[in-house]
Specification:
By secondary structure, the chain is mainly beta. The protein has 6 helices and 25 strands.
């Protein structure tokens, strides 16, 4: 028997040649798109995924929820606010690692699957007997044990652990993560387990934030928030239109405070999919399906972190900051920032969807109103465009645990 024991460890733009042709830029855009798709390919549908518990799954948290300095890296499966629930492997594979820590994941077990993914089960009370026996031999309360692929093979539905409340946990539950085994990129577990979770409730937006950038909104150059005033009714599909008409001139970014929900529970979740349209044209889209570990701190850039510190509310930007590499954000050539330079009504639409395609749509109108204090500048230069495409070509590297 071979067992390896190690201590647990924690886990501008360079000046480049200037491109002088639209075709070259389009070529870079195409390579960016194909590169992303090759690195973030879909999972092997031939591998069957099953529930990690023997009762109906309800969630206390979903993948990608914004937290200070990091995204929530998995789903939190409820265990009835008690410990002692049986935890099962969600697919065929082998147990590759056990960890014990007073912080972080607490007691955790890792299962490698043949489709290129690894599932991680966290905050456990204890492991199944065949693993628990090994730990008792060491007599340590903080360690990591790594196993070869032949030592502990498992089948989907095999018992691997008992749920608990260890590590950095605020109450008994199962925190379940799924990673790309090679790069350790975090995947949304609903890609694999979404068919096991009932959800017929659309996300809801509470309010939007206007962030003037070389512009004014409602005559003000400071960022402002405006509530949608939608009643708290939970439906599968909903459409809401604000009767109030706003005014703007110059360049303005928008952000949204919204939550997702599910029937039968009081929890609220992060937004899987957000889209901003201006006059029916997409200017920004986010799809929180895969997050590289190295991009974790960028949650503070995507969200308005300073506003969160003051109000404990996350406004997620519907535009892309210049330094961001997050591959889950997709913006037009102007980074999603809207330019109001015509005296006419602009129709803005936010679309929210969850993994089960429950959808909420929010419409409001912004009247372009000339303001002498705003000196309109060009929307961008060729160098600005190159910098945008440079973001698409961020190095697909991450820190593997």
């Amino acid at each position: 028997m071979r067992i390896m024991i190690t201590t647990v460890s924690k886990v501008g733009i360079n000046l480049m040649p200037f491109f002088t042709g639209a075709l070259v830029l389009l070529g870079f855009f195409s390579s960016c798109k194909s590169n992303h798709n090759s690195q973030f390919s879909t999972f092997n549908s031939q591998l069957d995924y099953v529930s990690p518990v023997d009762y109906e799954i309800t969630l206390a948290g979903n993948f990608g929820e914004p937290r200070p300095w990091h995204f929530h890296g998995g789903i939190d499966v409820k265990t009835g606010n008690v410990e002692g629930k049986q935890i099962f492997s969600i697919a065929d594979g082998y147990v590759s690692r056990l960890t014990i820590n007073k912080y972080g994941f607490g007691n955790a077990i890792y299962v490698v699957h043949p489709d290129g993914h690894t599932s991680v089960y966290c905050h456990l009370q204890r492991f199944a007997p065949q693993y628990e026996t090994l730990l008792q031999r060491t007599g340590k309360d903080t360690l990591s044990m790594v196993f070869p692929s032949t030592q502990f093979p498992v089948k989907a539905g095999d018992l691997i652990a008992i749920s608990g409340n260890t590590g950095h946990s605020t109450g008994p539950h199962l925190h379940l993560e799924i990673h790309d085994t090679e790069t350790w990129v975090m995947r949304d577990p609903l890609k694999f387990l979404g068919h096991l979770i009932a959800d017929t409730v659309a996300p809801q937006a509470h309010s939007f934030m206007a962030v003037p950038m070389q512009g004014v909104f409602n005559g003000c150059q400071d960022k402002q928030t405006f509530g949608f005033g939608q009643p708290e009714d939970k439906k599968q599909r909903t459409t809401w239109t604000l009767s109030r008409v706003f005014t703007a001139w110059g360049r303005v970014g928008f952000a949204l405070w919204a939550d997702d929900y599910a029937q039968g529970v009081h929890n609220h979740y992060g937004i899987r999919y957000m889209q901003l349209l201006v006059d029916g044209r997409e200017v920004f889209r986010s799809d929180v399906d895969s997050i590289p570990i190295s991009c974790q701190p960028e949650v503070n850039e995507w969200g308005d972190y300073s506003h969160w510190r003051k109000n404990r509310v996350w406004y997620m930007k519907a535009y892309r900051e210049p330094r961001m590499r997050l591959p889950i954000l997709h913006a037009d050539i102007h980074r999603g920032i809207v330019t109001f330079n015509e005296e006419r009504p602009y129709r803005l639409t936010f679309i929210l969807r969850d993994y089960q395609n429950n959808q909420a749509t929010y419409h409001f109108t912004v009247q372009g109103l000339r303001n002498k204090s705003v000196r309109l500048k060009s929307n961008g230069t060729l160098l600005d465009d190159y910098r945008l495409f440079r973001q698409c070509l961020w190095p697909l590297k991450t820190t593997k645990k």
